[in-house]
């Protein structure tokens, strides 16, 4: 079971959303698994990844990078 404990350094919604996406991608290793951790559909997760400018290397399953 994956540890889902995570402390947000801020309550600013957009910043918190980005941090949660990045953390879920790192822990889950894929967009599908990150979506499961976040309780979102894969499509909703992908939409948010694009919104925040997060780059994700699908083949390697890593590379959370900012704009």
**Low-confidence runs of at least 5 consecutive residues:** none
In what order do the strands lie side by side in the largest sheet?
1-2
Beta strands, count: 2
Number of helices: 3
Strand content: 5-15%
Give a quick account of the main beta sheet: strands, pairing sense, barrel closure: 2 strands, antiparallel
Mean pLDDT: 87
Order of helices and strands: HHHEE
Which class best fits the helix and strand makeup? mainly alpha
Level of helix content? 40-55%
Rg from alpha-carbon coordinates = 11 Å
Ends apart, CA distance between termini: 31 Å
**Overall spatial form:** globular
What's the helix and strand layout?
Elements: H1 13-28, H2 31-38, H3 42-52, E1 55-57, E2 62-65
Antiparallel strand pairs: 1-2
Helix pairs in contact: 1-2, 2-3
Describe this structure in words.
- The protein has three helices and two strands, in the order αααββ.
- A hairpin with a 4-residue loop joins β1 and β2 (62-65).
- The chain has a domain at 13-55.
- The protein is mainly alpha-helical and 67 residues long.
- The mean pLDDT is 87.
- The longest helix has 16 residues, at 13-28.
